[in-house]
């Protein structure tokens, strides 16, 4: 039976209902025979009952056509089992038995990109979270861990490469031009880590010698045409392997580690044991086609998936409520790795920017959930910024609270204690407690309370007593799962700035003997709703530098004057807070402009001069890291400004921000022009952080100049576009040109876009950047341009990267156009999105559900806009047969 009947929507799974499996599967033997248009999967599963024998055992299975079924070699008759669109139920199963099933599946028709599917010419799998059930009947849950032997067969010409997890133990030719390969994975694993690949792939090979002296073969498989884009992924992999040995004492544990790149992939990459499968966008890189951000993303994702080998695979999750156990921890690990490979502060600033625009928005919306959720409808919807990024922040707070030595003791204990097990976040924190002796009872509230805490800080200086006191109040807004929040344990890293620099700190209850070595820095541990910290012997009224390094994922309110912010931006010893002071100063300036916009006086508006004064001093300071400088000069994004508004006015935000940017650009034009003209566009490209830094500052300067360009500026931009030898500079120039409202520039931009496509049409990843640039271009008419792009031969409505480049980018990164639609239909952007979601929902529900995000924020927008957005959500809700993925998001958003 081939089941594509609609699955009933709205079934919720609860953490409190968790029960261990009644059976385990000791051994899993699969024969996967791939033919044109259909694949046969023969599974031999060794079951063992763990406790009392149940009356029935249900295996998960979806979109499978059952051909044969037997227990211990004896075919079952129809009274002994039942099959429906969710799975297979065995009545009265024995204590211990071998189940044999044979099913037929249709990978060529699988557009969900989950289970076994075909991407261009390559057969590949994606099993996390619950995709294995689309390959064979199984106990598709992470706490069932099995020994896997996989035999793959296919046509030898079509699929010369046949891969699965572990080590290859057999292979050879078969009749009819076919061949096979047999793989054995010696490590027991849950089925979500299963992988299989078959296709015509070329490979790059290298070796790595582990700390204990074992030789590991490293292979990256790509299409022949991409062989020249694998070097960066390979060196990133070797760096990650070395780093995990040095920083966590973790070695790789198989003789071979393989990466396969495919074009059609729902996410970035997948950590299948010994056989990672990657979105091409996260593996392939070369200077001519890949921007600096692209290079860094490859490094980060390669490391992330590699690090999962320990944080995820050797120690895995008991159930999907524990997803952040592996994802939060692994994001923390990859962020630290990237910090060590490049600039630590730059990496931190970039990550925090993502967290507090996108994750904070999620935490304030209808899908808010704690990093360990208590319930879900569709687990695919919970691969969120909260699970990943906020989860990483929680691990970071633990690492900082424990300090490097105890944190390392704790991770050693965690890996040793739970090797080969499927565990919970409780057990992770328990290892932290056991290794450090700290009581983390209150800290654990970060795992089960959603929402972003807000800290309100007030201070008082007593000149006579030379005492300075800081009072911090915490409160967390209600979220759907919980209205009343208990106080969090919040580490607030801080220092105090005086006229001449950082002040020596002594808290009233500290004795002189136990003052730390660095006496200008403290971590205040907030555990109450309100607490006052008193510093003694403070000679002057200081400017507080609070939440250094973004020591906790919270919002912080303190009434800084603009002069205070200038002091912090120029003099704070904490790089993150220097950046933060610039953001606050710029935000205040933009908020002034928004007020002017609302009073219709934006055209005459002259910004407060502090911002430009600070920027000027920073630009003249030659000691600054140029990448930090570029970030400090970067005005807060429209999304961040929106997140700071009670009611969002995307139009005011856009024009106010633009006005401030144009002012900065014209006031500092000379300095910016110097940066751009001093740069030699033909200098040799290196993806090293100091070179990246130079490019990012120079391109930031170009961006400012091109807001109101002189003929000379336009010439500089066109010159860079023509002569750039790398995609970072080429794309920066093209972007500046395309987004420039100047008429001459607009004409040039049209030709430049055409020429760029001509030049790069055979490089899909470059074409994606070309599509994304047009989708986020704020110049009016974007919706019409986007609709035209959907008809362009370069577009492919089944490819997630293309969908993201055009539809997601337009709806998320072009707020002005998305929220204003077309001249006669202001809601056209919303209707466009709903139509795209409906078209995609039955083909690829995971991607369709992700597209809904911008509409879920409807409550934050002014009356008409909010209602128009809601109307489109309602339209989705009314769609018969909507996928459970989309249904969950739509129904929770309308509630
Ligand atoms: N575990 C993967 C990672 O974070 C995430 C992932 C890859 C995924 N593909 C997926 C999650 C498909 C859900 C569906 O590295
Ligand atoms: Zn991950």
TrEMBL record:
* Substrates-to-products reaction catalysed: Release of an N-terminal amino acid, Xaa-|-Yaa- from a peptide, amide or arylamide. Xaa is preferably Ala, but may be most amino acids including Pro (slow action). When a terminal hydrophobic residue is followed by a prolyl residue, the two may be released as an intact Xaa-Pro dipeptide
Co-factor(s): Zn(2+)
What are the EC numbers?
3.4.11.2
Q: Name one Pfam family in it.
A: DUF3458_C
Please identify the protein, giving its name as recorded.
Answer: Aminopeptidase N
The Peptidase M1 alanyl aminopeptidase Ig-like fold domain extends over 451-559
User: Any idea where the Peptidase M1 alanyl aminopeptidase C-terminal domain is?
Assistant: 563-895
**UniProt superkingdom:** Bacteria
List the source organism: Gilvimarinus algae
Keyword Hydrolase carried by entry: yes
């Amino acid at each position: 039976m081939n089941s594509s009947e609609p699955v009933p929507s709205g079934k919720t799974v609860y953490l409190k209902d968790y029960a261990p499996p009644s059976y385990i599967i000791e051994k899993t033997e699969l024969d996967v025979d791939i033919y044109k248009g259909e694949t046969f999967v023969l599974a031999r599963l060794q079951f063992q009952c763990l406790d009392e024998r149940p009356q029935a055992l249900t295996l998960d299975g979806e979109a499978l056509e059952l051909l044969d079924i037997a227990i211990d070699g004896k075919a079952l008759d129809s009274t002994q089992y039942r099959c429906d669109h969710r799975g297979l139920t065995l009545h009265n199963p024995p204590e211990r038995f071998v189940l044999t099933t044979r099913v037929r599946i249709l990978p060529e028709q699988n557009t969900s990109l989950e289970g076994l599917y075909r991407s261009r010419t390559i057969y590949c799998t994606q099993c996390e979270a619950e995709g294995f059930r689309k390959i064979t009947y199984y106990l598709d849950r992470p706490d069932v861990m099995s020994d896997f032997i996989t035999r793959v067969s296919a046509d030898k010409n079509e699929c010369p490469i046949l891969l699965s997890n572990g080590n290859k133990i057999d292979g050879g030719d078969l009749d009819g031009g076919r061949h096979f390969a047999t793989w054995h994975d010696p490590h027991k694993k849950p089925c979500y880590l299963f992988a299989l690949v078959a296709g015509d792939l070329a490979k790059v090979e290298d070796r790595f010698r582990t700390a204990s002296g074992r030789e590991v073969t490293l292979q990256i498989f790509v299409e022949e045409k991409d062989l020249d884009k694998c070097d960066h992924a390979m060196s990133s992999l070797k760096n990650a392997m070395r780093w995990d040995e040095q920083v966590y004492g973790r070695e790789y544990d198989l003789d071979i580690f393989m990466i396969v790149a495919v074009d059609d992939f729902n996410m970035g990459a997948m950590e299948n044991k010994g056989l990672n499968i990657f979105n091409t966008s996260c593996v392939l890189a070369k200077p001519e086609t890949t921007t600096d951000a692209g290079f860094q993303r490859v490094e980060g994702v390669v490391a992330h998936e590699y690090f999962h080998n320990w944080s995820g695979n050797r120690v895995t999750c008991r159930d999907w409520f524990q997803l952040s156990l592996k994802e939060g921890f692994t994001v923390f690990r990859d962020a630290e790795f990237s910090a060590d490979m490049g600039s630590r502060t730059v990496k931190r600033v970039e990550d925090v920017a993502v967290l507090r625009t996108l994750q904070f928005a999620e935490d304030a919306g209808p899908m808010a959930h704690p990093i360990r959720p208590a319930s879900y409808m569709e687990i695919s919807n919970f691969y969120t910024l909260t699970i990943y990024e906020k989860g990483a922040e929680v691990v970071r707070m633990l690492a900082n609270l424990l300090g490097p030595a105890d944190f390392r003791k704790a991770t050693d204990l965690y890996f040793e204690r739970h090797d080969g097990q499927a565990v919970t976040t409780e057990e992770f924190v328990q290892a932290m407690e056991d290794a450090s002796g700290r009581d983390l009872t209150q800290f654990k509230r970060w795992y089960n309370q959603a929402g972003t805490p807000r800290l309100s800080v007030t201070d008082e200086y007593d000149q006579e007593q030379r005492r300075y006191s800081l009072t911090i109040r915490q409160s967390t807004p209600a979220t759907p799962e919980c209205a009343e929040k208990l106080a969090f344990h919040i580490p607030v890293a801080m220092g105090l700035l005086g006229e001449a620099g950082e002040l020596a700190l002594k808290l009233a209850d500290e004795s002189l003997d136990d003052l730390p070595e660095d006496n200008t820095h403290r971590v205040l541990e907030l555990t109450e709703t309100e607490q006052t910290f008193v510093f003694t012997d403070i000679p002057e009224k200081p400017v507080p530098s609070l939440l250094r390094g973004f020591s906790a994922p919270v919002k912080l309110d303190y009434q800084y004057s603009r002069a205070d912010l200038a002091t912090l931006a120029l003099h704070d010893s904490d790089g993150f807070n220097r950046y933060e002071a610039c953001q606050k100063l710029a935000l205040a300036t933009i908020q002034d402009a928004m007020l002017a916009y609302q009073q219709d006086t934006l055209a005459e508006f002259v910004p407060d001069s502090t911002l430009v004064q600070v920027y000027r001093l920073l630009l003249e300071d030659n000691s600054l890291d140029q990448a930090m400088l570029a970030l400090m000069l970067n005005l807060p994004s429209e999304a961040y400004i929106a997140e700071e508004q009670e009611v969002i006015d995307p139009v005011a935000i856009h024009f106010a921000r633009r006005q401030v940017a144009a002012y900065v650009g014209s006031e500092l034009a000379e300095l910016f022009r110097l940066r751009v003209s001093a740069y030699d566009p033909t200098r040799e490209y290196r993806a090293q952080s100091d070179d990246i830094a130079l490019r990012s500052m120079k391109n930031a300067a170009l961006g400012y100049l091109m807001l109101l360009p002189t003929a000379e500026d336009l010439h500089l931009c066109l010159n860079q576009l023509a002569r750039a030898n790398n995609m970072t500079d080429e794309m920066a120039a093209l972007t500046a040109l395309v987004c420039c409202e100047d008429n001459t520039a607009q004409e040039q931009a049209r030709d430049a876009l055409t020429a760029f496509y001509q030049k790069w049409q055979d490089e899909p990843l470059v074409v994606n950047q070309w599509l994304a640039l047009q989708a986020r271009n704020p110049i009016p008419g974007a919706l019409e341009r986007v609709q035209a792009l959907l008809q362009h031969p370069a577009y492919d409505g089944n490819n997630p990267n293309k969908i993201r480049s055009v539809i997601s980018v337009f709806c998320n990164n072009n707020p002005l156009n998305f929220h204003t639609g077309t001249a006669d239909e202001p809601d056209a952007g919303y209707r466009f999105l709903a139509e795209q979601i409906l078209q995609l929902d039955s083909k690829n529900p995971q991607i369709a559900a992700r597209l809904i995000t911008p509409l879920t924020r409807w409550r934050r927008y002014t009356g008409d806009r909010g209602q128009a957005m809601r109307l489109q959500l309602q339209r989705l809700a009314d769609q018969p047969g909507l996928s459970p993925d989309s249904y969950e998001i739509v129904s929770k958003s309308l509630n």
